[in-house]
Amino acid sequence: MTQNILILPGDGIGPEIVAEATRLLNALKDRFGLAVELEEAPIGGAGYDAAGQPLPDETLALARAADAILLGAVGGPRYDQLAWELRPERGLLAIRSELALFSNLRPAILYPQLASASALKPEIVGGLDIMILRELTGGAYFGKPRGIQTREDGVREGFNTIIYSEPEIERIVRSGFEIAMKRDRRLCSVDKANVLEVSQLWREVAERVAKDYPKVALSHMYVDNAAMQLVRAPKQFDVIVTENMFGDILSDAAAMLTGSIGMLPSASLDAQGKGMYEPIHGSAPDIAGQGVANPLATLLSVAMMLRYTLNEEAQAARVEAAVGRVLDQGLRTADIWTEGCRKVGTREMGEAVVAALAD
Ligand code: NAD
Ligand code: IPM
Ligand code: MN
User: Fold this and answer.
1) Residue whose CA is closest, atom 27 of ligand 1?
2) Residue 287 marked as a ligand binder
3) Crossing angle (nearest 10°) for helices 14-32 and 296-308
4) H or E element: which one contains 10?
5) From ligand 2's centre to the CA of 355, what distance in Å?
6) Percent over 70 (pLDDT), the chain
7) pLDDT confidence of 317, banded at 50, 70, 90?
8) How far apart are the C-alpha atoms of 27 and 355, rounded to whole Å?
9) Domains in the chain, please, with CATH?
10) Reading across the β-sheet that carries 267-269, which strands appear in turn?
11) Residue 185 DSSP SS3
């Protein structure tokens, strides 16, 4: 059965990196029998330019109908002065929320070839393989009340609400246990339970869910300590489960353990396993249009899509192996380049991965 993939290039480097993902998917289709059809639609600033909205109605309708979605990145200085609801980031948040993509998997895996590209010493990051599970449709990102208001004394104040219901906590924590069961069976729940009531509830629910998973060792860690531990001794973690904003921040930090933020893919899944796939990085306005962005996080997001939504494990493994081969060949985009390697651009990297696909 042919599956439909909706491609949302977005802004900045989005179209450049997504072009390589499209090249890869077409190669899997032509050479390895992957049964997919690709369709493209605008989102973010591109959505605003095309239809006056960061998430055009038509894009949302196509997203609902698609079997899987691949997104590049959204945002950029051109759009920063737009009214709040028209900003590109609102489009990304809206599609996550509309499709109920609450479970965001962000694997931080160090390819051994990149040990020297990491900001940390090879012995600290060697063999690193951690999974950060970020709650994606709740917390401060969506909580109400929110806004900017003027007090009676004329002073302006901005406010947001971090709110999580028990069912919202339970479903993401449960996903964390399920993932841990397939890995090293260690789940670290990261919170701020020494300060925030919402974290107290989170901890309570995590303890309750843990009773259903006696084989998984559950631990709790405050988020400030977790940030420190991630750079001190990241291999102590197997699976981390955390709320939306903490997960956003910790995953960018974890990305640097792997050499570059250009290496970290992600899957955002709903309760049925349908999903949107995207690199965790942004639209990188500082390098957009130069053809130098690292496409590997996006290509590895395609691998996650093949694995988690399209049920094509062999194709996923094929893509990941091809990335490994290209790194073995010494090809590096600027962000992961080290002495003795060959510096390549976005397109050359994408073409090399396609050329390295093996039977
Ligand atoms: P960013 O992730 O876009 O860039 C941070 C730094 O990492 C930059 O120096 C950039 O050049 C570099 N970088 C990022 N991806 C790279 C890649 N593939 N290859 C090489 N280098 C890469 O974060 P930012 O600068 O804080 O945000 C820029 C814009 O992107 C903002 O509008 C922000 O809202 C948006 N953003 C979007 C997403 C998304 O679409 N998922 C995620 C984060 C930020
Ligand atoms: C990410 C991004 C987004 C987030 C922004 C652009 C809304 O930083 O995907 O990590 O904060 O979730
Ligand atoms: Mn982020």
Assistant:
1) 282
2) yes
3) 50
4) strand 3-10
5) 32
6) 100
7) very high
8) 9
9) 1-102+270-359 (3.40.718.10), 109-262 (3.40.718.10)
10) 36-40, 3-10, 68-73, 275-277, 267-269, 103-109, 129-135, 239-242, 186-191, 217-222
11) coil
